[in-house]
Specification:
This protein is α+β, with helices and mostly antiparallel strands and 1221 residues long. It is built from 23 helices and 56 strands. Strand 29 and strand 30 form a beta hairpin. Pfam families: Alpha-mann_mid (PF09261), Glyco_hydro_38C (PF07748), Glyco_hydro_38N (PF01074).
């Protein structure tokens, strides 16, 4: 840990600066020493006991040691800076030091060309090649609609080649969708888990798999009988109840960032290890709407051996099935070795429910879903006294006298029934009118409806209830839509039913190369009632026993777990390799699930904000815990708040959470959870920072966030700092950089200055001279109660620095006000002040520039027309556009999941007389376009001094009824000749090449853009970096479309049963880079890697600096935790405190960057050299490389002095432990 008390003053006399600083620092050290001694001697009353004395002495000695080290570092810094000055004079500035910015490693902003390709791994199955080959047609395949007519070849099955059938019972439990998480658990999931324990404990033949740890945790916390916990653990230990995947949820794979992917998996695995002692080995992803190889990489990195997926485009399923390649080794396209391969199994048919898992014919398979059986017993409530025409209290007295506790009656006057029902008083204690005591009371229940028959007892609608009188209608309440109901298995039909089922099993097995067949048995929230358990298990067991007793059929069948299935062919069969992803998903016809990439973007942005705070708080909380062992009790008390935040971030990664495909009430529940989590993280960050910077009275004070969400349904706002003469109060704010690299960043705060002599001071107490003052606006309204002060901060890697704003002792210079130019704002702003000019007419073109960037805008529509960044120029035009949806009464339309446009060509968003506001300053210049109709939009383009990108911010509100059934997007038109090729990212972890196909409709050419999209040719690359996940495509050469929001008035028939109409005012942020591509013939091929600059700027979007403020001043004004910088291509992904005492997980990710970067080819990290000495002294010397969720040890003979090698693209996790306190 290092402290800096001097700032570069290049223009002053070097000699007097060195002398003055040296003398001051020496004096400070002596004062600090004697004050510490004095405090120990003068304040003995504060020492209550020997423990307290020891703690105070340790604390003071620690402070003394810090102060002395501060001065040693200062002298070292002076020598270093003197050397740097002379090197700078000689033109040999050394950039490899702790102050280096990652941009120092960018090689002339150019990206290597695609010539001279490197040797590449060629998989057996390449998804781009599959796309080239497929026609993407949808001929009718017969009973298997999306396949073909399968005919069993009996010769494939023999005594030596028996078909081994593994029937795997499961229940898919969404942690929120139609109901909230809590309601699902209370009404269904709790009963499912109870039943699992009960039934598996009764029958040793039964098996079950479970995926969602969030529900296991809720069950564990609420179950009252300790015996149930013991039984569950015994079932898990025996392998009969298998935990598959084991994440907190079954996460989405399109919108989720890989940090959150890992976080939700770790949260689940840590809970499982702590409570059940289990390490999952197999993945189960049957419901995410498209699959990413990033998830395969993460599972493999967590020690998994196999995985099952379901929602793959029906045409791709058919293609792979035709080649018996539905099982393969999924490999990353950038990986040459088999180390990262994971065996993947695709279920071949339409869905994961019972009718679509036993074989190709759902009409047959549905007959073996025994939940749909007509009930063998009719369980009816038969009311006592249901028929007498009127009821007497005498009967109630007699029943009570006979020892009865309750009674049910029916024939009561309909008006009286209605009256009692309106007051919810149909159940009461019936007392004799002459009785004063409760002894004769009997609980009485009145049936509310017309009669006591079935049509009038299930609910208010007899038309509906009559359908559930199974004496009248033989099919059960869960009907098979193919009009062929299940039959209870009996001795008379078991032979015929066995052959029928076995025919389906054999047909399905023909789609795979092994003789092992996986048959999932379940659906959403199945097995919540014991009757279903009995119906399924008893009937299937009769079938199993009959089939297994016939050796001539060459079949072995049993209830199984997923692990038993994968183990059956482990080491026996070699599968082909496959690289690529499975987006965009289509379940039928041209119904592509590309709408959910953009549904409910307010909450997608909300998630990224929470994710950023979780990551930053993880790291600073870990640092505080490591460096302040005597404050661990206080920090430990915050762990429940932290766990709550982690779990709610994890919960929203659910495939109906971040996707925007849950009911409005469920989404609001997610948002409230995330908001409370942000409040928790604010408290934890405050306590951690105050401990590290040695604030006084930590218990009674708290740092507050400068940028904060006021509630769960609004965009962020800035805190207002009021400065006046009355209280002479200074505001102190800490700037926290959680990234592992240094940078110069723009910081803006809102002030209400009541005086002129105010200033901002840095952590050295030196006044910040370069401040830009801006007016503050809300859309087109000027906010007169505040101004914005913007300045540039040099943030060291992984550091805290305290700045202050308040009244200055000396009269300060004039702050530089920005100049504001308004167009079409009306007369009210005319001649308001010298720095604000308003015009009624807009010029044809408006040009803005700084030292790096030139912009040209159209005055007509207020949108960009041309962009120049250094020596790279392109005609770059932006335009807001819309798509509608298909029309017609019985026509499938767009909904939360699906995008079905009315036309292949987007329509311009028509507006006129847009307002334009230009704020031009010495640091930042902004061009804002304000559109009032048809929807309110604020579109902002910003350029910042010293930066080589432009920032884009779009704020809008799709609330108007006139914007129903429309999708809002922004289109970029450029000169780049990318033809039909473009690139999007997968989960922020890797890039993937996309190709636009004319044989696929528009909606199928849209892909998820969790963070990045770019197009390029031999001269230029245009990259758009996003602070929220959205959908993107390149519909023509040179074009990029990014979908911003959607408002849809109807359901898309995928189970949600509602449209998308809960739009919120949303603010989305982007960065746009224009880079040159080198034409050097010797340049290696790097088309799938973003530039180093793009990687760096993306991390700044996703993990911006955290600003927290207080009226208190800290004891220490700056702290930075890295002794040396990380290699420029290694990202500090996380530093996570474990649930185990004194244990931390360090996550390092080595980016794949293009050859524009001058990073070392073999980047290694030595922790003893990376972290400051105070951190390394607090750590045990031995470290262990772990799997990604820290369940498995990978390398144990490591130390903090070892050279840790992180291979390109890979994530390494190291377990660190602190020394005993």
């Amino acid at each position: 840990m290092m402290f800096r008390l001097a700032k570069k003053k290049w223009m002053r006399s070097l000699y007097w600066t060195i002398v003055l600083v040296f003398l001051v620092s020496l004096l400070t050290a002596f004062i600090y020493y004697f004050v510490l001694i004095d405090e120990l001697e003068i304040k003995p009353k504060t020492i209550v006991n020997s423990d307290n004395l020891e703690k105070q002495i340790n604390y003071r000695l620690s402070g003394l040691e810090l102060g002395l080290k501060q001065n040693r570092d200062l002298l070292k810094s002076i020598r270093f800076k003197l050397d740097r000055v002379f090197k700078d004079i000689n033109g040999n500035l050394n950039k490899d030091n702790e102050d280096s910015d990652p941009s120092d490693y960018i090689r002339d902003q150019s990206i290597c060309a695609k010539s001279s390709p490197q040797k590449e791994f060629k998989p057996n199955i390449s998804m781009p090649d599959v796309y080239e080959e497929l026609k993407f047609d949808n001929p009718d395949g017969g009973v298997w609609k999306q396949g073909w007519d399968l005919i069993v070849n009996e010769t494939l099955f023999s005594k030596g080649h028996k078909l081994k059938v593994f029937v795997v019972p499961h229940s898919h439990n969404d942690p929120g969708w139609i109901k909230t998480f809590d309601r699902y658990f209370r009404e269904q999931t709790k009963h499912i888990l109870d039943n699992i324990v009960t039934k598996l404990s009764e029958d040793p033949k039964l098996r079950f798999i479970w995926a969602e740890t969030s529900y296991l945790s809720a069950w564990w916390e609420t179950v009252k009988d300790p015996k149930m916990k013991t039984q569950m653990k015994a079932l898990v230990d025996s392998g009969r109840l298998e935990i598959v995947t084991g994440g907190w949820v079954m996460n989405d794979e399109a919108n989720v960032h890989y940090f959150a992917m890992i976080t939700q998996m770790v949260e689940g695995h840590e809970w499982l290890m702590d409570h059940l002692g289990v390490k999952p080995k197999y993945g189960w992803a049957i419901d995410p709407f498209g699959l990413s190889p990033t998830m395969a990489y993460i599972l493999k990195g967590m020690g998994f051996e196999g995985m099952v997926i379901q929602r793959v485009h029906y045409a791709i399923k058919k293609y792979l099935a035709s080649k018996q390649e539905l099982e393969f080794r999924w490999r990353q396209y950038w990986e040459h070795k088999a180390d990262s391969d994971i065996v993947c199994h695709i279920e071949p048919f339409y869905s994961y429910d019972v009718p679509h898992t036993c074989g190709p014919d759902p009409k047959v398979c549905c007959q073996f879903d025994f939940k749909r059986l007509p009930p063998s017993k009719v369980y009816l409530l038969i009311p006592i006294q249901s028929n007498p025409f009127g009821l007497s209290p005498t009967m109630a007295y007699i029943l009570k006298g006979m020892g009865f506790e309750g009674m049910v009656i029916q024939r009561v006057h309909y008006a009286i029934k209605k009256y009692l029902a309106s007051k919810q008083e149909l159940e009461f204690r019936w007392r004799q009118y002459w009785e004063h005591k409760a002894d004769s009371d009997i609980v009485c229940h009145i049936e509310p409806f017309y009669s006591y028959d079935v049509p009038h007892t299930c609910g208010p609608d007899p038309k509906v209830c009559c359908q559930f009188d199974f004496k009248r209608l033989p099919p059960s309440k869960v009907k098979c839509p193919w009009k062929a109901s299940p039959h209870k298995i009996t001795d008379s039909n078991v032979h015929q039913r066995s052959l029928l089922l076995l025919d389906q099993y054999r047909k399905k097995s023909m789609l795979y190369k092994t003789k092992s067949l996986l048959i999932p048995l379940g659906d959403d929230f199945r097995f919540d009632k014991l009757e279903e358990w009995d119906a399924q298990t008893e009937n299937y067991q009769k079938l199993f026993d009959y089939i297994n007793a016939r050796p001539e059929w060459n079949v072995e069948i049993k209830f199984s777990t997923l692990g038993e299935y994968f183990e059956s062919f482990k080491g026996i069969h070699s599968f082909p390799t496959l690289s690529g992803d499975f987006f965009t998903y289509s379940d039928r016809d041209d119904h592509y699930w590309s709408g959910y990439y953009t549904s409910k973007p307010f909450f997608k942005r909300f998630e990224r904000i929470l994710e950023s705070h979780v990551r930053s708080t993880e790291i600073i909380f870990s640092m505080a815990s490591i460096l302040n062992p005597h404050s661990l009790d206080r920090l430990n008390a915050l762990m429940p708040l932290f766990v709550y935040a982690r779990q709610n971030l994890a919960l929203f990664q659910h495939h109906d959470g971040i996707t925007g495909t849950a009911k409005d009430i469920v989404v609001n529940d997610y948002a409230n959870r995330m908001y409370r989590s942000l409040e928790n993280l604010e408290k934890i960050s405050s306590q951690s920072i105050m401990n590290l910077l040695h604030y006084e009275n930590i218990e009674s004070n708290q740092l507050k966030l400068v940028d904060k969400l006021p509630n769960s349904f609004s965009t962020s706002t800035k805190s207002l700092f009021i400065i006046d003469d009355n209280n002479n109060q200074n505001w102190h704010f800490v700037i926290y950089n959680s990234l592992g690299f240094a940078s110069y960043e723009l910081v803006c705060i809102h002030l209400q200055p009541m005086v002129n002599n105010w200033c901002i001071k840095d952590n050295d107490g030196v006044e910040v001279e370069d401040i830009q003052m801006n007016r503050v606006w809300s859309m087109d309204k000027l906010l007169t109660d505040r101004v914005e002060a913007c300045f540039v901060v040099h943030m060291k890697a992984l550091s805290l620095a305290e700045y202050s704003v308040g009244i200055c002792d000396e009269k300060r210079g004039v702050h530089k006000k920005s100049a504001v130019t308004l167009y079409n704002f009306g007369q009210s702003f005319n001649n308001l002040s010298e720095d604000l000019v308003s015009f009624d007419e807009t010029p044809t073109e408006i040009q803005l520039d700084n030292e790096n960037i030139g912009l040209t805008f159209s005055g007509a529509d207020g949108m960009l027309r041309k962009l120049s960044i250094r020596d790279v120029t392109t005609n770059l035009r932006m335009k807001f556009m819309t798509y509608g949806t298909r029309s017609g009464k019985k026509v499938q339309k767009s909904g939360a999941y699906i995008f079905l446009p009315d036309n292949e060509n987007a329509q311009d968003l028509v507006y006129s007389n847009c307002k334009i506001r230009i704020t031009k300053g010495n640091i930042v210049t902004r061009f804002e376009t304000i559109i009032e109709k048809p929807i309110p939009i604020r579109h902002q383009i910003s350029i910042i001094k010293g930066k080589r990108y432009i920032e884009m911010e779009n704020e809008f509100f799709l609330s108007q009824s006139s914007f129903g059934n429309k999708e809002l997007m922004i289109r970029f038109y450029s000169d780049i000749q990318n033809d039909d090729i473009f690139y999007t990212d997968l989960n922020g972890f890797q890039m993937i090449k996309r190709k636009r196909y004319n044989k696929i409709p528009l909606q199928g050419n849209i892909y998820p853009m969790p963070t990045t999209v770019y197009i390029e040719d031999t001269k230029q690359r245009l990259s758009v970096l996003s602070g929220q996940p959205l959908g993107a495509t390149s519909p023509r050469s040179g074009w990029v479309d990014i979908f911003l929001d959607r408002r849809l008035l109807q359901d898309d028939q995928r189970g949600l049963n509602q449209g998308v109409v809960d739009n919120r005012k949303t603010k989305e942020i982007f960065k746009i880079l224009l880079e040159s591509t080198s034409s050097e013939p010797t340049a290696p091929t790097q088309p799938l890697k973003p530039s180093l600059e793009a990687q760096i700027e993306l991390q700044k979007i996703l993990s911006p600096p955290i600003l927290m403020y207080s009226t208190m001043k800290s004891t220490i004004s700056e702290i930075y935790f890295l002794h040396n910088p990380l290699p420029c291509n290694i990202h500090l992904l996380n530093m996570r405190r474990s649930s185990k005492a004194n244990t931390y997980s360090l996550y390092l990710h080595r980016w794949g960057v293009g050859c524009d970067a001058k990073c070392a080819a073999n980047s290694t990290v030595v922790l003893s050299q990376l972290f400051s000495p105070f951190i390394t002294k607090s750590l045990e010397p031995q470290i262990t490389r772990m799997s990604l969720s820290s369940l498995h040890e990978k390398e144990s003979d490591l130390s903090i002095d070892s050279q840790l090698n992180v291979e390109e693209m890979h994530i390494n996790v190291y377990r660190l432990r602190t020394r005993g306190v």
